[in-house]
């Protein structure tokens, strides 16, 4: 499957619990909208520890996805809930774009002055003599190296050249947004509101959940004994 802007896809692929409603309906779909739904399922799962839509059979799962109702754990922050509402929307035309999501408050928490932006792949330096000499020292033929780089063949020579250019740095040590500390440390403190681990109930414990519909903006609050 290869997505081309303006054309639709028709292949049902991926794990069913993460599939968007239009896939279950057998409709042709736009790639980005389906990806946004899947990202919403992933976010919900990472924050809550359970899937927003699940079922013992594929048929049951399909019914729940098409119904679009899921529960928000009591410990989830309002900002995170608002972001989920942008992801998990039954109508793909009303689902938020990735550009909109990158501007979301929760996504930029702690980085308000450095709003998340699309990643731009830097131009590769394909004339690094140090790496070329390293490849020669490894036994590669110089002519083969130069030909692979000039033609961007993406063969073993090209791959090894790129690997030699990777910097061995710890992303958590440079304060960059690529570090995992954003999601693990900062957000854990914000979303759990500094509640100790022992006080955060798992989805199998009794607690208050907000019941949300992917087609509605009005949540209802009710107690639940399950996830």
From TrEMBL:
User: Which SMART domains does the UniProt record give?
Assistant: S_TKc (SM00220), UBA (SM00165)
- Asked if the record carries the keyword Nucleotide-binding, the reply is yes
**InterPro entries reported for this sequence:** Kinase-like_dom_sf, Prot_kinase_dom, UBA
- EC numbers, comma separated: 2.7.11.1
Q: Where is this region: Disordered?
A: 168-227
Query: Its domain of life?
Result: Eukaryota
UniProt key word Nucleotide-binding: yes
Which residue ranges does the record assign to the Protein kinase domain? 1-107
Question: Compositionally biased, Low complexity: which spans?
Answer: 176-185
Q: Which Gene3D superfamilies match?
A: DNA helicase RuvA subunit, C-terminal domain, Transferase(Phosphotransferase) domain 1
Question: Which GO BP terms, alphabetically?
Answer: intracellular signal transduction; microtubule cytoskeleton organization
Reactions performed catalytically: L-seryl-[protein] + ATP = O-phospho-L-seryl-[protein] + ADP + H(+); L-threonyl-[protein] + ATP = O-phospho-L-threonyl-[protein] + ADP + H(+)
Residue stretches of biased makeup (Polar residues)? 195-204
Record GO terms (molecular function): ATP binding; tau-protein kinase activity
Q: Which UniProt keywords apply?
A: ATP-binding, Kinase, Nucleotide-binding, Serine/threonine-protein kinase, Transferase
One Gene Ontology cellular component: cytoplasm
Location of the UBA domain: 126-165
What protein name does the entry list? non-specific serine/threonine protein kinase
**What species was this sequence derived from?**
Culicoides sonorensis (Biting midge)
């Amino acid at each position: 499957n290869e997505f081309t802007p303006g054309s639709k896809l028709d292949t049902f692929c991926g794990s069913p619990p993460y599939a968007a409603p239009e896939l279950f309906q057998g409709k042709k779909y736009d790639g980005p909208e389906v990806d946004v739904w899947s990202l919403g399922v992933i976010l919900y799962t990472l924050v809550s520890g359970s899937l927003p839509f699940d079922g013992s059979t594929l048929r049951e799962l399909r019914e729940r996805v098409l119904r679009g109702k899921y529960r928000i754990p009591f410990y989830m922050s309002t900002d995170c809930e608002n972001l989920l509402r942008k992801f998990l929307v039954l109508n793909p035309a009303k689902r938020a774009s990735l550009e909109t999501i990158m501007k979301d408050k929760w996504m930029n928490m702690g980085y308000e002055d450095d709003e998340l932006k699309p990643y731009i792949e830097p131009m590769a330096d394909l004339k690094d003599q140090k790496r070329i000499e390293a490849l020669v020292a490894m036994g590669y033929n110089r002519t083969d190296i130069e030909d692979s780089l000039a033609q961007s063949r993406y063969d073993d020579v090209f791959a090894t050249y790129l690997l030699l250019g990777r910097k061995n740095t710890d992303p958590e040590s440079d304060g960059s947004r690529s570090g995992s500390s954003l999601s693990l440390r900062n957000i854990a403190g914000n979303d759990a509101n500094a509640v100790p681990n022992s006080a955060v109930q798992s989805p199998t414990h009794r607690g208050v959940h907000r019941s949300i519909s992917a087609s509605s903006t009005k949540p209802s609050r009710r107690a639940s004994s399950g996830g």
